[in-house]
């Protein structure tokens, strides 16, 4: 219904939701709260929000000096550390767009996204210099490179023009007159790694970023406060480290940034113990590494209270190991680059405390419920909404304040966005009557056997619970009678000859008999994408000629 000129507007201030406001708030209320980093050039670095933001002012001056205009894309190829944090605020708050680049992309993908974004400046960790030297002559938009290090550590360089970050900042004023930005000003750009076709750019704005960070702080989402010490082991180059560089300052939480030590159990343990980390976030691979180190060394993580695990499905066996061996509670979470990324977080509802262990695990294995700000539904092939009964499964669609409504420089988004404002995630899921989402597969990875769908994620989660299995992936193999049947591909635990019968018997009683993989095959390594997810596409190519015999 349209009310026309009878609509009455409220008389509240229309202050823009900008990242600059986060900086102003945190600088006023939490300027002494620590930001600790592992850096590639000087080991552990201790800073505070106050110091970080002072240097963001210097970054803004440096950008002016380098000729950056509002709306220009300024790229970073960097790990999680204080300098990257300074750039997060310095670039976005000055009205330019922070383009975080995933250094693990293939060189041709790097060239594609830098040219597609038309990056003007690239700030890079010294370790990425050799890589950029091989690509620089294919990057016409890039006008300068800035190496994230101090003058004395500046490596030999072939790239031109090139600057040293610390020298560039040292000449700049510590105060900057930040522009009052419209809240829909683009703030950051992140490309999805895309298993098919070229990577696609997701362009965040100030408003979506602030709303996402606000929501992340809420008790039922990440539940952050100024009593917390947060370790994001999720890269700042991929979906803004799940929004922690914005949410932690709002909450006043101490931030511990692991630099390049992302999947190194020993370093993570040292950081957690040394800095008193309470909350840590990351993909399952990272926690496999930490748990293996703790097991091997017999060490404890005394302050760690909870982990938020997402990016790929978190096996229940991991949650149990964390809880039983280390008194750490695990929250399963789900999200996407297109969703900034938080889409759901698993917290048990009041009353669920009385569930028995297996019922409780069944709920905890799910990816959780959407926070206020995200709406979700599942649909069939004809886009009809399916019941949310925990049984019906279909394509997962979402909408909300921090969901992309199209891709950067892509006019036709009809493949992913329908006319009613919903985004197709490309995930297949169920949603139960309590709103808990359960991802069963990527649309492209579902296994169809005799007309029924088999969830590869469910099988993988069960397989990794076996001590002989270090990593598992399930793919569909062509089958004359059934169309497709599941094949379990495993990497065995180091030094172990896997007990295949034992592994297969693990599925009995846990899934229907017809879902149990027909066979197991062992490989040295399972292929991964640039964002660390199992690349089923590559695996299917590797097993294209496989037959069950
Ligand atoms: P990306 O945009 O690279 O962060 O990847 C997003 C995709 O990762 C989602 O669409 C899911 O397919 C997958 N994903 C993220 N979190 C989970 C999770 N907890 N369980 C299963 N898949 C997940």
Describe this structure in words.
The chain is of the alpha/beta class. Helix content is 28%, strand content 24%. The protein contains 16 helices and 24 strands. The strands form 5 sheets. An 8-stranded mixed sheet has the order 2-1-11-10-12-13-14-15, with helices on both faces. The protein is globular. The model has no long low-confidence stretch (mean pLDDT 94). The protein binds adenosine monophosphate (AMP). Adenosine monophosphate (AMP) binds next to strand 14, strand 18 and strand 19.
What's the total count of β strands?
A: 24
- Percent helix range: 25-40%
Low-confidence sequence ranges: none
Question: What small molecules does the structure contain?
Answer: adenosine monophosphate
Write down the Rg.
24 Å
Structural class: alpha/beta
Total helical segments: 16
Shape: globular
Instruction: Tell me the distance between the termini.
Output: 63 Å
Query: Beta fraction of the residues?
Result: 15-25%
Global mean pLDDT: 94
- What's the arrangement of strands in the largest beta sheet? 2-1-11-10-12-13-14-15
Largest sheet entry: 8 strands, mixed
